Amino acid sequence: MSEKVLNQTEKSSVGEDFLNTKRQNLSGNEFEKGRERSKTGSNRWHNLIATNATIAIGSRSHNHKCEIYVNDMSVQLNRNKICFPDVIIVKGDPNFADSNADVLLNPTIILEIFSNNVNSFDKMEKIENYLAMNSIRECLLVKEDEMRVEHYARQNAKQWIYRIYNERDDVISLDSINCKISLSEIYSQIKFKNEEMSSKAVN
Questions:
Q1: Which pLDDT belongs to residue 174?
Q2: What is the DSSP annotation of 44-57?
Q3: Domain for residue 38, yes or no?
Q4: Domain span at residue 58?
Q5: Could you give the CA distance from residue 85 to residue 8 in angstroms, rounded to a whole number?
Q6: Domain containing residue 137: CATH number
Q7: pLDDT tens for residues 180-197?
Q8: Is residue 202 in some structural domain?
């Protein structure tokens, strides 16, 4: 798959010192308004959910021109903010800030995994930044400590459809990449109230 790299006159300002430090130290911290913000580490459930979603979506996207990045690809949300979504899907050719190909400019789908400990203001601020990106067609917010997925699907420049999925047999349609994924797949091997969920594939 070809990649488009913006030249110096096209690319946005993203904080060169932060990027250089990140590349040298493999830092997963985020960058906002000129400051570096710590990103909390991932636990067992967080990693399982990210892996489950990636496998389920990846197994159905072979006939589509998509790339999937997990855990350590940064996204430039705007001139002053860089973040690290848990799973990123790009339909078509990915565009990067420079030749390092580690700051993505055009995600199609963002999946973020949250726990009950996440500050609600920080969560909403990040969601608003995601929804403001022209390239993003869908956004999934997945809870790691309860069965709940919030799905934002773009209808036009000013309208999104918001759905909540919280049942094992619920199926999410990712229309931007013509793919479906069930909650039983996302939460495979995750235990809630001492009950282990089994994986249920979508036909």
A1: 96
A2: HHHHHHHHHHHHHH
A3: yes
A4: 14-196
A5: 25
A6: 3.90.1570.10
A7: 999 999 999 998 764 544
A8: no
